[in-house]
């Protein structure tokens, strides 16, 4: 079985889908791993390290030639796959809702596309979950970068020249990224509060030593839908949330927004009028900027100044931590393929629960119900 790993071609993508560690592990399973020369460069992994781990190096065409499985951080263009075996698997973060054209092209080319972000949120798949591994790093990085731009310190400091007060940080959306943002802001010494539409997060916020800020007494609200994800909220809830946020946000120095709803534009959480009530020098990091943004006026990959408040948003925050993000992403892919490895056939064979959840295309058709 031949596994191919290509250099990522998307602008700003620094990650790589295999590391020397996972090359060695795949090799131990009996696979040949072919890696495109330079694939690890932006993640500080040299070709020589891949070769020492047992990888075959070459250009894109030679790496893909005869491949049974092509791995990626993002999906490769279908043109790169022409030398692969018929029915080749492509396992990567395929952005199924954002890159529909590419998914259709995979179907037409007979590729079996596996979207790693559709991995079900079940216990046995946790180690295969790219959304969790990458969101965790993104939540950390958002706080670090907000602290870098903030013209003051995070912790309270009592000095001979007088006292500096602690920064107030507010985390909006307490999924995987938000929980790590709370923990990171706390470690830096900020006073942290947080909010979410899922009431289950209240306890998690408290257990991290932060203060929950929640909309109460709005009828019929439970913001948790399928798979533990958020649902879109009613207009009454949205109005109550906006009011609560308005009064709270004016007192905050740092705001990190992480709210996403799968398959939809990110919910708008902060308006320009609310930004105008914040103190000059405050910083907002919009982790949802690539999905349309939680914050009015945020621009992908720019730091925007609105009313003296700096708004940061990277379209691909994990790519700002290339080495760690690659290490975890590569392990997710290895954990996935190795969990289904059939020793007799010398290749992975997926079960129904996970296979049907992540398979987008098969036999020339788009087959995933979420895309039909
Ligand atoms: P996400 O990235 O989809 O969204 C981030 C957070 O924003 C979520 O907590 C969501 O509730 C919140 N949000 C959405 N709309 C909002 C709004 N209008 N206002 C405020 N907050 C809003 O979430 P995620 O990090 O992928 O986590 C989703 C769920 O999956 C969580 O319950 C998480 O604990 C769970 N999870 C389970 C597993 C597993 O068991 N394998 C793995 C990872 C995550």
UniProtKB/TrEMBL annotation:
GO molecular function list: NADP binding; oxidoreductase activity; proton-translocating NAD(P)+ transhydrogenase activity
A Pfam family that the UniProt record links to this protein: AlaDh_PNT_C
Any Gene Ontology biological process: NADPH regeneration
Documented EC number(s): 7.1.1.1
Keywords: NAD, NADP, Nucleotide-binding, Oxidoreductase, Translocase
Stretches assigned to the Alanine dehydrogenase/pyridine nucleotide transhydrogenase N-terminal domain: 4-138
Family of the protein in this entry: Belongs to the AlaDH/PNT family.
Protein name: proton-translocating NAD(P)(+) transhydrogenase
């Amino acid at each position: 079985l031949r596994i191919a790993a290509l250099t990522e071609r998307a602008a700003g993508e620094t990650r790589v889908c295999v590391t020397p560690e996972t090359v060695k592990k795949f090799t131990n399973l009996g696979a040949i791993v072919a890696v495109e020369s330079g694939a690890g460069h932006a993640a500080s992994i040299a070709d020589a390290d891949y070769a020492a781990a047992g990888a075959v190096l070459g250009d894109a065409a030679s790496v893909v030639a005869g491949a049974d499985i092509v791995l990626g951080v993002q999906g490769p263009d279908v043109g790169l796959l022409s030398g692969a075996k018929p029915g080749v698997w492509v396992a990567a973060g395929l952005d199924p809702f954002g890159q529909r054209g590419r998914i259709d092209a995979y179907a037409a080319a007979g590729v079996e596309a596996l979207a790693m972000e559709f991995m079900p949120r079940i216990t046995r798949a946790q180690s295969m979950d790219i959304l969790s591994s990458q969101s965790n790093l993104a939540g950390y990085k958002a706080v670090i970068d907000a602290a870098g731009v903030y013209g003051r310190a995070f912790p309270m400091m009592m000095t001979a020249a007088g006292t500096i007060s602690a920064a107030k940080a507010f985390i909006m959306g307490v999924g995987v990224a938000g929980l790590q943002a709370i923990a990171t802001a706390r470690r830096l010494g900020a006073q942290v509060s947080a909010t979410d539409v899922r009431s289950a997060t209240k306890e998690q916020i408290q257990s991290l030593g932060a203060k929950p800020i929640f909309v109460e007494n709005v009828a019929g609200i439970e913001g948790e839908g399928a798979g533990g994800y958020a649902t879109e909220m009613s207009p009454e809830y949205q109005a109550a949330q906006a009011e609560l946020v308005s009064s709270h946000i004016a007192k905050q120095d740092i705001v990190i927004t992480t709210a996403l709803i799968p398959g939809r534009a990110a919910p708008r959480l902060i308006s320009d009028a609310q930004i105008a009530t914040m103190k000059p020098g405050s910083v907002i990091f919009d982790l949802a900027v690539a999905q349309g943004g939680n914050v009015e006026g945020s621009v992908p990959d720019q730091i925007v100044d609105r009313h003296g408040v700096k708004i940061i948003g990277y379209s691909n925050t994990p790519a700002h931590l290339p080495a760690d993000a690659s290490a975890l992403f590569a392990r997710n892919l290895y954990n996935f393929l190795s969990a289904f490895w059939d020793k007799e056939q010398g290749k992975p064979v997926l079960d129904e629960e996970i296979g049907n959840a992540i398979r987008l295309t098969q036999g020339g058709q788009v087959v995933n119900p979420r895309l039909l």
